[in-house]
Amino acid sequence: MSTVIRNGTIVTADLTYKADVLIEDGRIAAIGTGLVGDEVLDATGCYVMPGGIDPHTHLEMPFMGTYSSDDFEIGTRAALAGGTTMVVDFALPSPGQGLMDALKMWDNKSTRANCDYSFHMAITWWGEQVFDEMAEVVGRGITTFKHFMAYKGALMVNDDELFASFRRCADLGAIPMVHAENGDVVAELSARLLAEGNTGPEAHAYSRPSQVEGEATNRAIMIADMAGVPLYVVHTSCEEAHEAIRRARMNGKRVWGEPLIQHLTLDESEYFDKDWDHAARRVMSPPFRNKKHQDSLWAGLSGGTLSCVATDHCAFSTEQKRYGVGDFTKIPNGTGGLEDRMPMLWTYGVGTGRLTMNEFVAVTSTNIAKILNMYPTKGAVLVGADADLVVWDPEARKTISATSQQSGIDYNVFEGKEVKGLPRYTLSRGLVSVAEGKVCTQEGHGRFVARKPGEEAVGRALSTWKALTAPRPVERSGIPASGV
Ligand code: DUC
Ligand code: ZN
Ligand code: ZN
Ligand code: ZN
User: Which residues contact 216 (CB under 8 A, 6 or more apart)?
Assistant: First the structure.
């Protein structure tokens, strides 16, 4: 069975051209004109792009005394509905739990995925077992390790642990990631706010000013430099963090920043003079910022100092958010966005001229596939690549609403936003999973994508401690690029 996508314009991270795409056995078999297939998808007036990759989700994750509400089935269905064909979720060991043990839990949960997925592994504590198991984790195809510099007393790791883990990453050719907020200062500010009687959700924002993120981002970059590893900074939300990343990149350090669609399009006014539920539903870390920070993030995306756009999809129902009535520190941190990332970024980025279409593809898909060493199997429209594709209709419109979303929660942080630009078709390894507004996903279709250490991580020490990592051979994941 073959499928041909006809009459569309292919848009990749570097090219825009008219051609048909032929799909066989879940892969792109040919790109050209006059192609013939068993099934025909009409892309007249549409752009044919690599499906989105969301590098940052938390599906069915135990967190802050509860579980994030959307599981792998719902989460990947939401992803596909919005043109995203792959998610990278965080396996999160509870402190003291073995990494391989946590991985087993994530293996079990993810069997229901509708689209392909991969994992990052979180380092939530440190010890000999973690050190040893990191090698096994890399052997399983997970080459990225996330560290929380916040959530003191729970998930946070200290600087000595960060340095030890970063050095281990250097040995293994893995890439460390950080949630960069100064957890000590956040804990201090939170305690003070509570003691002064500030218990509402707006105090969450006051407890995490942009300085705590800027400081931690810079500290993580310096520690990575001393360990001789690149660094991926998740949910970069403010100018101070962007500034640290920008400076590091200017100095030849390999550091990537990942703004979220929420921080790009929603601001701190969502917390102030709003009803409790409205504000609490938008409590996430880092919190939403003001216009100045948003402008900085948009500039970073077009200027190339920030590399990808994610969601940090970690959805909690209103009922779950209400665990924090009377104490904002107990409001489960997290917001949804999987279904809305692509349409929102298209509308507010491409639609306003802040991003070109090619930049849109780069930051939603191709850059991510490259950093995570999945390119060109993922993130590409090339012969031999997986047929993870979106046929994008730039004229299609909708108003975002919880009443029509895939996510299982009872609200949407983008409620009421008008988007222009939506998938006409979304294909997951050739399987049509969304067609003309109808979601027709197949539970369990998604496969785990194993990754290998990439060129960036292997033997690419940063500015100073070059001796710590010896160069070693690199195995690229993908097919030899042909045809373009
Ligand atoms: N921030 C959130 O808002 N939710 C999940 C974890 C995180 O770091
Ligand atoms: Zn985080
Ligand atoms: Zn409201
Ligand atoms: Zn996260």
Answer: 149, 150, 178, 180, 181, 182
